[in-house]
Amino acid sequence: MKTVCYIAHPDVNQSSSQQYLLESGLNYSQAQYVNLYEMMNNLVIEQEQNRLLAADQIIFQFPMYWYQAPGILFEWINQVWSTLKPSQLKGKTLGIVVVVGGKKEHYQSGGREGRTVSELLSNFEVLARHFKMNYKPIFAIHQFQYMNEQQKAHLMWRYLFYLETKEEERLTNYQRFIIARAKTLIGEEIAADHNLAPLWQAFISQLEMQEFEIEELMGINLEEEM
Predict the structure, then answer these.
(1) At residue 54, what are phi and psi to the nearest 5 degrees?
(2) 70 CB-contact burial (10 Å; exposed 0-12 / middle 13-18 / buried 19+)
(3) What is the predicted pLDDT for the residue at 203?
(4) pLDDT digits (tens, 9 = 90+) for 103-133
(5) What is the DSSP string of 103-144?
(6) Contact yes or no for 192/61 (Cβ under 8 A)
(7) Rg, C-alpha atoms of the chain
């Protein structure tokens, strides 16, 4: 699957959240990244349209500014998408990765903002529907600046899952993805240092056992519902 991720941030190099996401994606996924602020000065519309047409999945990645995406993203959409026909993007997937400064609980009914992130950014769902695309649930990252290393590591895996699959982020899907990717990474680590093999194999075995236990539990729950 070919994923193109368009970053709409005025200074990616000075953003700790964007740097973390960018490094994670470049190092551990096959996603292609495009910096809109760098590209817009030399925009070639036909070239960008061809990039869209070649992609299976298109991701918009940006910080939330006053409850919306940065204006440059809409400027780019206006120039690049306006002459495309819905049939040209039909069946492709559109996803949103948004970094939000506020707490998650603020963005819900009864919360301080009174709207969910999905409601605030619902215009992208309408855009996807117009072009007959599949729209993924929004990947919202709240208060990255307060995350510890363990939370950031968990974020990285969830982000990679979002970039590389079209699957729903269910626990079993997520766990299978981690196991498959871990095996790839482990193979690379072992090739560099054979002494790591026992440690990595134990880690994989533990993940696979947890996956089996979760599937078994889900199977029991389904039988009870029937």
Answers:
(1) -85, -15
(2) middle
(3) 59
(4) 999 998 888 998 999 999 999 999 999 999 9
(5) -GGGSSTTSSS-S-HHHHTHHHHHHHHHTT-EEPPPEEEE-G
(6) no
(7) 20
Statement: residue 212 has pLDDT above 70: no
**Per-residue b or e along 49-61, where b marks 16 or more CB atoms closer than 10 Å to that residue's CB:** bebbeebebbbbb
Q: How far apart are CA 20 and CA 153, in angstroms?
A: 10
Backbone angles phi, psi at 137, to 5 degrees: -55, 145
Say if residues 20 and 56 touch (Cβ distance below 8 Å).
no
Distances in Å between the Cα of 43 and the Cα atoms of 85, 88, 127 are 20, 20, 21
Q: DSSP letters of 33-46?
A: EEEHHHHGGG--HH
H or E stretch including 205?
Answer: helix 197-225
- CA 198, 204, 208, 211 torsion-angle sign: positive
